[in-house]
Specification:
The protein is α/β, with parallel strands linked by helices. The chain has helices spanning about 5-10, 20-30, 35-50, 50-65, 90-100, 120-125, 135-145, 160-170, 175-190, 210-225, 250-260, 265-285, 290-300, 305-315, 350-360, 405-415; strands at about 80-85, 105-110, 150, 195-200, 230-240, 245, 335-340, 345-350, 375-380, 385, 390-400, 415-420, 425-430. Helices cover about 45% and strands about 15% of the residues. The strands form three sheets. The chain has a six-stranded mixed sheet, sandwiched between helices. Strands 6-9-11-7 form a four-stranded antiparallel sheet, sandwiched between helices. A three-stranded antiparallel sheet has the order 10-8-12. The structure holds uracil. Uracil binds near residues 165, 174 and 180.
């Protein structure tokens, strides 16, 4: 087999066989196929796409390029939860302990922030002492003892994805549904849970800006999971507004703790309950309605908060943040953004607000940058709220005061004050249930 023939075959819209896909993935992972040929092939896939069978084969081969996590011998039904990335999305911090309190074993491998979207690992690292690089044995022990564990994607899991993702990032081939779906699902298959629940975000603050693409991405991932024998479902959820009232790592952990105490903002609570219910439904132990009841009970009883504390302590962190979130890093400068006219919050440009949080230090400009755990934005007003001139719409938090004026301008530009908006639903659809 020659790589050049496979590039031409895909360029002409051909369908690749299992042997051909295996040749490409193994050849690129071992360094036999050079970047320039892989880049040409990725661009051919970008324009020509892949059918469901090819996408599933590509995913399997990417998962098989490295090791599989060994979850055997751990009690309970293992379920993973994944978000395609959004602004203010701290759901994993709430949902993992919530689902564990409802009897599931939540084995979660998470990433860092990407562009204007936040990442669970950055959020957890704002908890003093919290370790996000767990050895496989430690990961297994936390899962067994606590019922939920979150670790960074390290080791030799799906190495083909790491290489391909880095190449896609610099060759204009990220926004391809079969490539995104295989990238995400190869890591899920390598972790090897019994089931996966995907939160596919749609809107200005997400990778997928329109509903049709988000739906296709969700359907593609659900199909990959099912072909691989994993129980898989997806929720399509709105990212045309930030989730909750905080954006930024420590601020989001604080909001997650408040939510686990039963004091969360209604949109965040609703989505967390729905995600947990979907995980319980996918596990086969509950119907969706029973799952909602179990999830709400785990919040109200305080059981989910206690699980979160246990997970933090088992991963080396300071569990006292569950009683006193002021132990989390605090910014040296906080500045309010005031309304310049009366009206209603008519729209929030979520991507813009996510970018403003990055400028304050909550995200990275380039790979490898350090994030400032304390930086971010606290929203005093949400879409649909009324405001009067001079009232606080948001508060900016940073340790770099020289960034404040740029971030303030961006937040102001990103928030439109006008007539009350027609609110789109937070949960748009369920796929695969
Ligand atoms: N997240 C991933 O893991 N891969 C992609 O391609 C996009 C988002």
């Amino acid at each position: 087999m020659r790589m050049v023939d496979l590039i031409v075959k895909k360029r002409e819209g051909g369908v690749l066989s299992k042997e051909e896909i295996a040749f490409i993935v193994a050849g690129y992972t071992s360094g036999v196929i050079p970047d320039y040929q892989m880049a040409a092939w990725l661009m051919a896939v970008f324009f020509r796409g892949m059918d469901a069978g090819e996408t599933a084969l590509l995913t399997e081969q990417m998962a098989a390029s490295g090791e599989y996590a060994d979850l055997s011998g751990i009690d309970g039904i293992k379920i993973d939860k994944h978000s395609t990335g959004g602004v203010g999305d701290k759901t994993t911090l709430v949902v993992a302990p919530m689902a564990a309190s409802c009897g599931l074993c939540v084995a979660k491998m998470s990433g860092r922030g990407l562009g204007f979207t936040g990442g669970t690992i950055d959020k957890l690292e704002s908890i003093p002492g919290f370790q996000t690089t767990l050895e496989p044995g430690h990961f297994r022990k936390v899962l067994q003892d606590v019922g939920c564990a979150v670790t960074g994607a390290g080791g030799n899991l799906a190495p083909a994805d790491k290489l391909m993702y880095a190449l896609r990032d610099v060759t204009g081939t990220v926004e391809s549904i079969p490539l995104i779906a295989s990238s995400i699902m190869s890591k899920k298959l390598a972790v090897g849970t019994d089931g996966v629940v995907l939160d596919v975000k749609v809107g200005r603050g997400a990778f997928m800006k329109d509903l049709e693409s988000a739906r296709r991405l969700a359907e593609t991932m659900v199909e990959i999971g099912k072909r691989a024998g994993r129980r898989t479902a997806a929720l399509l959820t709105d990212m045309d507004r930030p989730l909750g009232r905080t954006i930024g790592n420590a601020l989001e952990v604080e909001e997650a703790v408040n939510t686990l105490r039963g004091e969360g903002p209604s949109d965040l609570v609703r989505l967390c309950v729905e995600l947990c219910a979907t995980m319980l439904c996918v596990s086969g132990t509950h119907t969706l309605e029973q799952g909602r009841l179990c999830a709400s009970k785990a919040l109200k009883s305080g059981a989910a908060l206690e699980r979160f504390r246990k997970m933090i302590e088992a991963q080396g962190g300071d569990g006292r943040i569950c009683d006193d979130p002021s132990l989390l890093p605090q910014a040296s400068s906080t500045v309010p953004v005031l309304a310049q006219k009366d009206g209603y919050i008519a729209a929030m440009d979520t991507q813009h607000i996510g970018n403003a949080a990055c400028i304050l230090g909550a995200g990275r400009e380039k790979k490898g940058d350090q994030v400032d755990s304390a930086a971010g934005i606290r929203l005093r007003k949400k879409c649909g709220d009324s405001v009067t001139v001079g009232e606080e719409i948001a508060v900016l938090h940073t340790n770099c005061p020289d960034k404040l004026s740029q971030a303030e301008r961006m937040v102001r530009e990103g928030i439109r004050i006008g007539l009350p908006p027609v609110q789109s639903p937070l949960i748009v659809d369920w796929i695969g249930l």
